[in-house]
Amino acid sequence: MTIPYDEALRERVRGHLTGHDRRVVTDPAKRHAAVAVLLVDSEVGEDRVDPAPVDDWIAGRPMESGLDGRMVDVSGGAAFLLCRRASHLNSHAAQWALPGGRLDPDETVIDAALRELDEEVGIRLPDHTVLGLLDDYPTRSGYVITPVVIWGGGRLDPRPAPDEVVAVYRVGLHELQRDDSPRFITIPESPRPVVQIPLGNDLIHAPTGAVLLQLRWLCLEGRHDPVDELEQPVFAWE
């Protein structure tokens, strides 16, 4: 069942973020980045199709039976924007990601998230649309990511930058509450559990998967469980 995009949801999310004792990661060896968790409205059945071959979508990753890497049947009601990164990028090519990037000198995480939102998907929003921050997530590739939750105020019209983003999807928040989500697996390379968030016909891994899990747990359900120790798959370590 879809989640209505209304003022009640906006205030629920804001209240949960305001009442959360945010976990901050301080690591001088890592660079600081921010991602935009943009909440927008959507309609059932408006899913689009990536303008790229399926081999580029999965970037050589082995796929489980029944999964093909497509983001289908995910729209409807309150949603967040999810990007498919371009396949020619030097790092994390063709992976699913939230709009974001590293902070410029003397830039705040809010400034960076709003700037990246504008640069990557062509949506410009003011500071007062920010509802709050999720926990920092330290990545294996050398970053500390701060997720910034933003209220879009409607459907909006993403215009992805073709050099960075292949496609932008509106993914209904209800998809985060599927019965088969979240999933946790073990890998020999780490004692920490790897998190997987099933969406459409694919699995979203950390760091994006960890951010989306906290979006569900904290913003929708009011749970304060940590996600910063959840592991990434080995292909995302570089």
UniProtKB/TrEMBL annotation:
<dbReference type="Pfam" id="PF00293">
    <property type="entry name" value="NUDIX"/>
</dbReference>
<dbReference type="InterPro" id="IPR020084">
    <property type="entry name" value="NUDIX_hydrolase_CS"/>
</dbReference>
<comment type="similarity">
    <text>Belongs to the Nudix hydrolase family.</text>
</comment>
<protein>
    <submittedName>
        <fullName>Coenzyme A pyrophosphatase</fullName>
    </submittedName>
</protein>
<dbReference type="InterPro" id="IPR000086">
    <property type="entry name" value="NUDIX_hydrolase_dom"/>
</dbReference>
<dbReference type="GO" id="GO:0046872">
    <property type="term" value="F:metal ion binding"/>
</dbReference>
<keyword id="KW-0460">Magnesium</keyword>
<dbReference type="InterPro" id="IPR015797">
    <property type="entry name" value="NUDIX_hydrolase-like_dom_sf"/>
</dbReference>
<keyword id="KW-0464">Manganese</keyword>
<dbReference type="InterPro" id="IPR020476">
    <property type="entry name" value="Nudix_hydrolase"/>
</dbReference>
<keyword id="KW-0378">Hydrolase</keyword>
<keyword id="KW-0479">Metal-binding</keyword>
<dbReference type="GO" id="GO:0010945">
    <property type="term" value="F:coenzyme A diphosphatase activity"/>
</dbReference>
<dbReference type="InterPro" id="IPR045121">
    <property type="entry name" value="CoAse"/>
</dbReference>
